[in-house]
Amino acid sequence: MEHNVSLISTIAFGFGLALIFGFIAIKLRIPALVGYLFAGILIGPTTPGFVADMTIAAQLSEIGVMLLMFGVGLHFSLDDLLSVRRIAVPGAVIQMSVATLLGAVLAWGWEWSFGEALVFGISLSCASTVVLLKALEARNILESMNGRIAVGWLVMEDLATVMVLVLLPPLANLLGGTAAIHPDEGSLLLTVGKTLLQVTAFIVIMLFVGKRVIPWCIWQVSRTGSRELFTLSVIALAVSIAYGASVLFGVSFALGAFFAGMVLRESEFSHRAAEKSLPLRDAFAVLFFVAVGMLFQPQILVSKPLHVLCVVAIIIVGKSIAAALLVLALRYPLHTALTVAASLAQIGEFSFILASLGMSLNLLPQEGYSLILAGAIISITLNPFIFNTLSPVSRWILKHSAYARHLDQRKDPYSKLPENEPTQTPTLTQRHVILVGYGRVGKRISEVLQKQHLPYMIVEQNRTAVESLRHTGIQAISGDATDPDILRNAHIGNASMLIVATPDAINVRKIAEVSRALNPAIELVLRTHSEDEATLLQSENIGTVFFGEEELAKGMSHHVLKRFVPA
């Protein structure tokens, strides 16, 4: 039976070693992904001992790609992307162009062909969304404005890379590789046009048909009350759509699964689908990274250390500097520039997918793949330490650079109300309300204040949202409410109440302290998601505290009593 257990042995060794080295990686305070890659190296053909079945590992990794991209689609929100489009779109395009150029020039210096250099450069330009999300969550800044900018930036990179994955096969012959189709089938322009038409048809069907059919199917399964069937339906849809997209439209598994997740993201079942499919997605994602590690050739670290060093320099230094300069040029604060720079100082899953496709099309040599993987392992390992240096580096730069202090003190054009509209500024007699945060809660509060014709002003970190609010005639300024200058620009001295509607629990106390220092008589209304934080704030008598779950319970209880208890 020995010849029949290659699948079991591959999974057993893959999961077992991934668990061991993932655990070690976490203990060393580096991402577990590094441990998974190392486990793959150990069961690969370049190291002694057990060698896993490469064919089976490749197919398992394909399933991992499907579920990984399905998970990315479940977290992709068009609204979130649009809220930071002014910085994320140009930022991603320019930064990817710079990184691609740096990587391509480096490869040309090694006498690689144009196609090989291009694929190599693009592979170095796209950072890992998975690594970024874990880094932001670990530091509780995922919901902050800096976090949203970083995630939006990487989502744009993901979308750009998806387009590269779509266009690379039909362009392979032109770039010097092996075309995915026979060259006699038509001209290059016709081939590219046909590919784009197929992709467009798939996207249109998913957005207009799939958006209705997929949630309906999930709803029918949900009505059975079976948790097993619900989980099975989510996984079946992800894999089936990815496979069907490949067979019927010539679309990659990755793109098919991504759109399946994105369509499901818009339904009411998105959170439950994400929760139920997470264990299987995580399991196959581990196998994907293990399979990637199996293709790594460790001798590249010894035979060409300068090549590896140059690749790491492009990933960590070149990309980061380009991104930071662009963010500063768009008049964002220094700390935002450093956060985005740290977010991009690594490469991950999309680089592996693109590199694998490049190898299959003869557009990337094995050496290039090993260099990309070496750069990924090193950059992902160093990324947590780079994030940890953000605050000290920011303080050091501001202390020793007058120009940096000048950049940090630049006035955001939206941080003050327009001087040519004096009637828009609340007066001493108005005793206006300052509303901090214009998210889901803030919008509802704003609507109530507007209906009652109460004077109010919004303080929001999202500059695009502030611009839109001003176009509708609502007074709003852009900035961090923990900054005294921003609150002064909001005329806090004249305000009677300040409402903190943002979910950023870390800064609630700081906002309250700064507000009371500037206006001791101001009434504070605070929002929190943490019961412990709510209890602490209430005990300190800082202001009126609203705890989300408690208010929900009160509202539901009131409805029940109104229905069953006579007045």
Describe the model.
The protein starts with 5 loop residues before the first helix and ends with a helix. The chain has a 6-stranded parallel beta sheet, sandwiched between helices. About 1% of the residues have low confidence. The chain has 567 residues and is mainly alpha-helical. The chain has 25 helices and 6 strands. It folds into 2 domains: 395 residues, Na+/H+ antiporter like fold (Up-down Bundle), CATH 1.20.1530.20; 143 residues, Rossmann fold (3-Layer(aba) Sandwich).
Keywords, separated by commas or semicolons:
2 domains; mainly alpha; about 575 residues; about 5% strand; six-stranded parallel β-sheet; Rossmann fold; Na+/H+ antiporter like fold; 6 strands
Helix content class: 55-70%
Tally of helical segments: 25
| Nearest-integer average pLDDT | 81
Task: Summarize the biggest pleated sheet.
Answer: 6 strands, parallel
Distance between the termini: 77 Å
Low-confidence stretches: 422-429
Task: Chart the SSEs and their pairings.
Elements: H1 6-27, H2 32-42, H3 54-74, H4 78-83, H5 85-109, H6 114-125, H7 129-138, H8 145-171, H9 188-222, H10 227-249, H11 253-265, H12 270-294, H13 300-303, H14 305-329, H15 334-343, H16 349-360, H17 366-388, H18 390-400, H19 402-408, E1 433-436, H20 440-451, E2 456-460, H21 463-471, E3 476-478, H22 484-489, E4 497-500, H23 505-518, E5 523-528, H24 531-539, E6 544-547, H25 548-564
Parallel strand pairs: 1-2, 1-4, 2-3, 4-5, 5-6
Helix pairs in contact: 1-2, 1-12, 2-12, 3-10, 3-11, 3-12, 5-6, 5-8, 5-14, 6-16, 6-17, 7-8, 8-9, 8-15, 8-16, 9-10, 9-11, 10-11, 10-12, 14-15, 14-17, 16-17, 18-19
